[in-house]
Amino acid sequence: MTGGKNLHWPLMKNNVSGADLAALVDFLQQDDPILTQSSEVQAFEREWSAWLGVKHSVFVNSGSSANLLTISALREHYGPGEIIVPTLTWASDIASVIQCGFKPVFVDVDRRTLGMDSAQVIGKITPQTKAVFLTHVLGYNALRRSLVDELQARGIPLIEDVCESYGATFEGRKLGTFGLLADFSFYYAHHLTTVEGGMISTNDSTLYETLRMLRSHGMVRESTSDELRQSYAESYPDLNPDFIFAFPAYNVRSTEINAVLGRSQIKRLDDNNRLRSENLTLFLNHLDSNKYQTDFATAGSCNYAFTLVLKRPDPAFCQKVIRVLHDHGVEFRRGTAGGGNQLRQPYLRRLLGEPDLSRFPIVEHVHFYGFYIGNYPGLEQEKILTLCSLLNDVPL
Ligand SMILES: Cc1ncc(COP(=O)(O)O)c(C=O)c1O
Q1: Positive or negative, the Cα torsion across 352, 357, 361, 365?
Q2: DSSP-derived secondary structure for 219-261
Q3: Residue 244: is it exposed, middle or buried by C-beta count within 10 angstroms (0-12/13-18/19+)?
Q4: Buried-most residue among 45, 55, 324, 347 (CB within 10 A)?
Q5: Residue 71 pLDDT more than 50?
């Protein structure tokens, strides 16, 4: 320690409450409860759809599984081609694109939202573009009206990764309701947790049926459509209707246990999100804007982690900031979402060769000079103010 108190500030705290555990214990104390995917999962999907404002949701075992199923469904219905993706996102977003046989086309991010730069996305559209797979990074809305309109006019599906941003809005509407498909993660550190878990939401009934089948081995009996099940049974009379596999697929189901936690948590999601937004405003309002970026596009944001991005690419200052965070017990991650620039990761370098990083200056700055710090509902305001003073006191 260089002096000063330990703030004991983890990335996330108490995200599973006593009430959640009590709901779980009640559920488990039933006589012989069904634990595999059943009515609790269905109820959680219905409640999630109602909270978000969409027709359909499919609960899976992680946000990464949500990514994989989303892009698999897109491949089944739209065929191969290119997908425009951000450089700042989670690895499984890009992995799903590659694993499903699409070519990822990268764009740099917007400094104020950390999401894809809309003008660059529009500039990268070609006749091969099958989708734009956008990530709303750490609670900030990445949508622009110009992008939404352009994609609609050209008939290009928008897919939203809302794993880090649920509850955030654009033009007063929740993120995840603009895209053809939207993915969510319920990992422990996120706005709502089922410990591990994820959701895919959509208003498209055909894609919904495909997602349900993809989630469970590709099995046709998972579809809720009598017509679809019947048509497969008639087309394949040599098969047992209970065992018709429509797609080469996966098993990414979750369990009743996880759904019970999700149902308990969703009741306080909006209240928790309000507290998180107040925390972020306090943090950004008290940071020294000569040293740190404070002009993030916070309108409609809903953040579970504070973004700390240094104003200038100053390695010595950066080391001093890291020292202060370490010395005062403040847990952090470098590079913000997903560890920074995906193009630097070995899995992509192996595939694409050495990238021309000079084409991606914004993500490069965030990669080396960006951090995130936990923002949980019980975070004390004095701690936020203390941290701001400590950070502001770091000499340039
Ligand atoms: C933007 C984004 N997408 C996808 C994921 C994957 O979610 P999971 O960890 O539940 O697999 C994450 C994980 O944090 C994420 O931040």
Answers
A1: positive
A2: BGGG-S-HHHHHHHHHH-TTS-GGG-B-SS--B---BHHHHHH
A3: middle
A4: 45
A5: yes
Q: What is the pLDDT of residues 206-250, one digit of tens each?
A: 999 999 999 999 999 999 999 999 999 999 999 999 999 999 999
The count of residues in the chain is 396
Report the Cα–Cα distance between both ends of the chain, in Å, rounded.
20
Task: Give residue-wise pLDDT tens across range 27-59.
Answer: 999 999 999 999 999 999 999 999 999 999 999
C-alpha 11/C-alpha 9 separation (Å) is 7
Structure tokens that stand for 255 in this block? 């369990």
* Ligand 1 atom closest to the CA of 187, numbered from 1: 10
* Residue to substitute in 62, 64, 252 for testing ligand 1 pocket (most ligand atoms within 8 angstroms of CB): 64
Name the token pair of 369: 């000079």
Q: Ligand 1 center to residue 64 CA distance, Å?
A: 6
Mutational test site, ligand 1, from 90, 199, 303, max ligand atoms within 8 Å of CB: 90
Q: Say how many Å lie between the CA of residue 90 and the centre of ligand 1.
A: 6
**Residue showing tokens 């913000």:** 336
Residue 276, helix vs strand vs coil: helix
Residue having the nearest C-alpha atom to atom 7 of ligand 1: 63
Q: What does residue 180 show for φ and ψ, rounded to 5 degrees?
A: -65, -35
| Cβ < 6 A, ligand 1 pocket | 62-64, 67, 89-90, 92-93, 135, 161, 163-164, 185, 187, 198, 337
Distance 227 CA to ligand 1 centre (A): 35
Cα of 347 vs centre of ligand 1, distance in Å, is 17
What digits encode the pLDDT tens for the residues 312-325?
Answer: 999 999 999 999 99
**Banded model confidence at residue 1, pLDDT cuts 50, 70, 90:** very low
Mean pLDDT of 115-143: 98
**Distance between CA 113 and CA 325 in Å, rounded?**
24
pTM higher than 0.90 for the full model?
yes
CA 188–ligand 1 middle distance (angstroms): 11
